[in-house]
Amino acid sequence: MGAVLSNRMAARLSDVEPVHWATPFVLALVVFIIYTVDRLLDVRKYSVDAAMQPLTARHHFHLAHAPLLWRVVIGAAVVAFFLTFFLPGSVVKFGIVLGGICAAYVGSVFRLPARHPALLLKEPLVAMLYAAGIWGSVWVQRPSVSYVEIAEGLMFMGIAFQNLLLFAVMEQLETPGQALFSLATAWGLESCDLVLRWLTFVIVITGFALCFITTDRFAQRSALMLSLMSLTLYGIQRYPAYFLKNERYRWLGDGVFWMPMLVL
Fold first, then answer.
1. pTM score
2. What pLDDT score was predicted for residue 225?
3. 27 CB-contact burial (10 Å; exposed 0-12 / middle 13-18 / buried 19+)
4. Residue closest to 156 by CA, chosen among 207, 214, 226
5. What is the DSSP letter of 80?
6. What element of type H or E holds 156?
7. For residue 132, pLDDT beyond 70
8. Is the Cβ–Cβ distance between 148 and 213 less than 8 Å?
9. Taking a C-beta distance cutoff of 8 angstroms, is the pair 35, 1 a contact?
10. Neighbours of 54 (CB within 10 A)
11. In this structure, are residues 249 and 167 in contact, taking their beta carbons and an 8 Å threshold?
12. Which of 26, 50, 198, 259 has the CA that lies 20 to 30 A from 135?
């Protein structure tokens, strides 16, 4: 739902012509498939690699329900495949390229050793792929893309990276005695805190600057909403003790991608 709502905001921002009705449905299915397959491969890898870090609650869920989830993934893939016949050719070509990159990424992660240095690219790479799917599927249906759209697309990518890096930091704080492997452990909590603060600052300043640069009312509202999304993530970072309880940071941290609904 977060991906679909964000995609609808991107579509309204450049409303030259309607985005095809099948786009959000295929996007939702593909995001679900990639996320679920990534988790299922993680737990499959865990069963043969004792060096992997301990399973999280969501990984335990995927391990316990793996046979059912594989069937659901196959069903979702079949539905998505048939829906692609309704999509414009530009979206299909874009999806093939992006889908190939995503498949290569998931396959590579599955084959790499548990603590391979290349796994540290997960947060920035996933942020780029996620933002590309949401904004790129709109842009390829447009005759042109404005600088405002590009700026807000980059803001969104920054928020996706902020979300992922914040989660890595919170996981490290949640289980300080476990040998986790992520950017949070590679950079250190202090450096991650500094990166997240600067990222919030850049995103918020960009959002306010766009309000003065563009006269489009929806562009202004969406820029402010992206700024609020980043500030919400900063709030989690600012009060980690509160948001670590019952994994509140996950609910609110992923919930920020529902916030575009407020401007639609």
1. 0.88
2. 96
3. buried
4. 226
5. H
6. helix 147-174
7. yes
8. yes
9. no
10. 11
11. yes
12. 198
Residue type, 11: A
How many residues are there in the chain? 264
Taking Cα atoms as reference points, which of 230, 240, 243, 244 lies closest to residue 196?
230
Separation of first and last alpha carbons in the chain: 14
Position 235 scores a pLDDT of 95
d(CA 108, CA 54): 20
Q: Which amino acid is at 181?
A: F
pLDDT digits (tens, 9 = 90+) for 77-114: 999 999 989 888 888 899 889 888 888 887 777 777 66
User: Longest C-alpha distance within the chain, in Å?
Assistant: 57
Average pLDDT over residues 150-159: 96
The token duo for 166 is 């914040």
Q: Round to whole Å and give the CA distance between 235 and 11.
A: 28
Q: What angle do CA 189, 193, 199 make, to 5 degrees?
A: 140
CB 53 within 8 A of CB 181: yes
Phi, psi of 55 (to 5 degrees): -70, 140
Q: State which amino acid sits at residue 9.
A: M
